[in-house]
Amino acid sequence: MDEEKKYSFQTGERNTFGVVDYVLFGLLLCVSAGIGMFYAIKDRRRQNIKDFLLAGGNMSAIPVALSLLASFMSAITLLGTPSEMYTYTTMYWWIGLGYFFTIGAAAHIYMPVFYRLRVTSAYQYLEMRFGSPTRSLVSIIYVVQMVLYMSIVLYAPSLAMNAGKAY
User: Fold this and answer.
1) What total number of domains does the chain contain?
2) Which domain holds residue 147?
3) Domain membership flag for residue 107
4) Whose CA is closest to 15, among 157, 161, 154, 153?
5) How far apart are CA 88 and CA 61, in angstroms?
6) Are 79 and 156 a contacting pair, CB within 8 Å?
7) How far apart are CA 152 and CA 95, in angstroms?
8) Does residue 131 belong to any structural domain of this protein?
9) Where does the record locate the signal sequence feature (predicted)?
10) Distance CA 19, CA 114 (A)
């Protein structure tokens, strides 16, 4: 193998997985799968939408907030935010300020309407308001947007990791 491909900045040689690394990685995957299997078996009697989508309506705000935060984090956010802050300095903070106003507006304008109508998603509301064809069209648009977004979210970190291999 080429000597250039073996180089690592920290050790001066190519880093590869060893036996301990594979065992720990496999253990991590087994524990994650085990947690999913445990709750799938434990909650298999829950059959209604409220239990499935809303956890029975009895979750506190902290796990819901952490779940939303984790769903909005991506490798692009982790790679791009420091670069944006470095390039545009404190101007990037205005985006964060805009988020607070948007969250407040959504919480006081949209959420009360959804709560009173007892809908579990914006798609259900669109079907109630405009009919099934509108819900289907918006769902298709969302799927296309997410496919494009996920391709970028997966491609950008792979470029960054590939650039790191060149050294």
Assistant:
1) 1
2) 122-157
3) no
4) 161
5) 34
6) yes
7) 21
8) yes
9) none
10) 52
- Is residue 10 assigned to a domain? no
Question: Six-digit token pair at 125?
Answer: 């509301």
pLDDT in tens, the chain (167 residues): 444 455 566 666 666 778 998 999 999 999 999 988 887 787 777 667 666 666 767 777 788 778 877 777 777 788 788 888 888 888 888 888 898 899 899 989 988 998 899 888 889 999 999 999 999 999 999 999 999 988 888 887 787 777 665 55
Handedness of CA 95, 100, 106, 111 (dihedral sign): positive
Q: 135 in the Ramachandran plot: left (φ > 0), alpha (ψ -120 to 50) or beta? A: alpha
State the Cα–Cα distance between residues 73 and 85, nearest whole angstrom: 17
Residue 30 belongs to a domain? no
